[in-house]
Amino acid sequence: MLGYLRTATTDTDNSSSAVSEKYKKAREYLSTQIGDKHLEEDIIKASSKVVIDKSSEKVAEASKKEALKEIQITPEITKTIVSTQKTDGSFEVSKEITDKLNSTSPESLVTSVITYTKNDKLKNVKPSVWQTVISM
């Protein structure tokens, strides 16, 4: 809880003096239980990290949901994307996809996606493979 109070409470909160007193009392308790200033700081830092990470996950999840809503496509767009499939099975990235993903061109989109891979073999794959994967 100390990590949460320390991380989530700001000086501009109306109840900051009450929270500050509770925080001090909790620190005293922690001090009597742990008995080592360095360990106290370590445990508070670890707790703060969890609070920040969990809060970030919550925000990221909400952002993902919003992003997914943004890129939803209609049956018409699906038909357009599917129509870019070549006889060998590969796809070209359609204008609809580049527009939805705020990219200037299929090539720049492929370049962006390649930067996300850490596998050197994948970095050397033909652009048509990347365009197919993006379109899928």
Give me the secondary-structure topology.
Blueprint lengths: L1 H7 L7 H19 L2 H34 L4 H8 L12 H6 L5 H9 L5 H4 L3 H9 L1
Helix pairs in contact: 1-3, 6-8
The proportion of strand residues reads under 5%
Low-confidence stretches are 8-13
Radius of gyration: 25 Å
Number of domains: 2
Order of helices and strands: HHHHHHHH
Largest sheet, in brief, is:
none
Gap from first CA to last CA = 45 Å
Task: Describe the fold and architecture.
The chain starts with a helix and ends with a helix. It is an all-alpha fold. It folds into 2 domains: 2-69, no CATH class; 73-135, no CATH class. It has helices at residues 2-8, 16-34, 37-70, 75-82, 95-100, 106-114, 120-123, 127-135. The chain has 8 helices and no strands.
Gist?
The protein has 136 residues and is an all-alpha fold. It contains eight helices and no strands.
Features:
mainly alpha; 8 helices; 136 residues; single chain; elongated
